């Protein structure tokens, strides 16, 4: 199974149309179709259900899509590390970041780490809200600057800061005029949800510990748009800048959101240890 074939399959699976996938890959459709048929033959199972309207994924196809994305991301990471080493001879530290890149703690960390380790090439991998570990488990990053809670099995997690949390509402929502809220005040409302397969600890926390109904979102922007367009309940740490069309009302019975730095157990290096030390100082300032 070649990486090129996996890239072909991911394009078809994401576009759900051979013609659009071929255009995206800048190739003609016949060789793309042949490559996918050969992949199905090699695996001994149908990956796609074809129809005149396009294609849909079979259950094995959905599984392969997730695995192929991880493999391709890993292959890209290998290329990045090798290219950086060839160009500069420098060590490379892959940092996964979740959420708001304008956080002042993260900005102080970046400046301090750069001053302390100008010889280290830092590469950033920003992830959406569906993976709070930012690719740690797949080996895509060395360290994650993220938020808890999530399944910490096999990981070392160090808390940097805790932030109170509020409900994000439309500014014209009657509840937006309140000084504070409890989760029970929002019980009958539609919330955002994360896709199936998202870390259950993470999902439960951002849904206030209860199963919710509402639109499925993958990123912060999608969550904000769900609030604006549909009046759903969003959640955010207090202090985040939002548009004037939105309001954040503190939740008095919601546990704080913990900013953490995490890495795989046993995976330490001088660059990683120093990153954790500098991060601890940067977030306490």
TrEMBL record:
One term under GO cellular component:
protein-DNA complex
Keyword hit for Transcription regulation: yes
Protein known as: LysR family transcriptional regulator
The GO terms describing molecular function are: DNA binding; DNA-binding transcription factor activity
- List keywords of the entry alphabetically: DNA-binding, Transcription, Transcription regulation
Give every HTH lysR-type domain span: 1-58
Which family does the entry's similarity section mention? Belongs to the LysR transcriptional regulatory family.
Q: Which InterPro entries match?
A: LysR_HTH_N, LysR_subst-bd, WH-like_DNA-bd_sf, WH_DNA-bd_sf
Top-level taxon of origin = Bacteria
Matching entries from Pfam families are given as: HTH_1 (PF00126), LysR_substrate (PF03466)
